[in-house]
Amino acid sequence: MPGLEISSLAVVDVGSNTAIHLECEQTPGNLPDNESRIDFYVDQVSRRAEELKELADYFVYDGAAAKKKFADGIVENTELHLVSKLRRDANLRYLYTGPRKPGPGKPKQYDGKILWKNLELGRFDICYEDDEIIIYTANVNSVSLKRNIRIAYISKKGTDSYAVLFSTDMNLAGLLIYKYYKARFQIEFLFRDAKQYTGLTHCQARSENKLFFHFNCSLTSVSLAKADFFDKVENQGTPFSMRNITEYYSSKLFLDRILSKLDIDLTSDKFDFDYEELLNTAGALV
C-alpha cells in the first residue's frame, strides 16, 4: 500500500510450518527526533511481552535486528530471546576458554577474531548435516552487539555460500536456530494471502483506528481460514493455500445449491454418499 507500512506480530508453529497472525500496527510516519523505527519495533514487542511469552520463548526477526539497540531492547524489556541473522562479514571474536594466567589483571576474555575467509572449523561443533548443508555452532562474542551470542554457521555444500544466524540464548541448539529463522518466512505468506484474498490493501479509510481494524481483520481472516483448513485435512503437513479453502467453499455453495433444488430426502439410503469426499474430489482440498 503506497505510503503505508505495517509491522506485524505472528506466532509460527514450527511443527506444521505455518504462521498465525496476532496483531499488526501501522508504523508511525513521524517519529521524535531521538527515536527511530527500531525504537517503535522494540516498543511494539515490549507492550505485548507478557502475551508473547505465553506463546513462545524466542522472538525471530530478520537481519535488521542485528543491532545493539534492537537486541538490548528485546532482551532487557522482555523475557524473550532474540534469533536473527548477521552480516556475512560480521565482526565476531572467539571466546577464550583456556586456563587463567597467574598474576594480577583482568582475565583474558577473547581468543582472536573470526576470519570468515579462513574459518577455523575446529573451534566449531557440527550440529547438523545433510546432502545440501552443514551447520556449525559456537558461542562467540559480537563486537557490534557488545554481547556474547550463539551462532549457527550454515555452509552450503559444494559452494562458497554461507549464512550466519545467531541467538541471544547461549544454550540454544544450532539446528533450532536454523529452523526458527527459516520458519520466520511463513509470515510473508500471511501478507500474500491477505493481499490476494482478504482485501488487505483495499481499505480507503484515513482514520488510524479504522486502518488498525481493517489490517487486523484482513490478516486474522487468513489465520481463521488456516485453522478451518487444517481441521478438514487429514495430513496436517499439507501446505496451506487460501486458493484451496476458497475453492472448497465455492464447491460447497454450488453443491448445496444443486441439492436444494432436487427436492429429495438426502438421508435416504438411495442417495447415500460421502459429502466431504465429494467436495474433495472436486479438487478443493488436496
Question: Can you summarize this structure?
Answer:
With 286 residues, the chain is α+β, with helices and mostly antiparallel strands.
Descriptors:
single chain; 286 residues; alpha+beta; 8-stranded mixed β-sheet; two-stranded antiparallel ribbon; 10 strands; 36% helix
Layout of helices and strands:
Elements: E1 6-13, E2 18-26, H1 37-47, H2 49-55, E3 58-60, H3 68-77, E4 81-86, E5 92-95, E6 110-113, E7 125-129, E8 133-142, E9 147-156, E10 162-167, H4 174-183, H5 186-197, H6 208-232, H7 242-262, H8 275-281
Helix pairs in contact: 1-3, 5-6
Description:
The mean pLDDT is 86. The chain has 8 helices and 10 strands. With 286 residues, the protein is α+β, with helices and mostly antiparallel strands. A hairpin with a 4-residue loop joins strand 8 and strand 9. It has helices at 37-47, 49-55, 68-77, 174-183, 186-197, 208-232, 242-262, 275-281; strands at residues 6-13, 18-26, 58-60, 81-86, 92-95, 110-113, 125-129, 133-142, 147-156, 162-167.
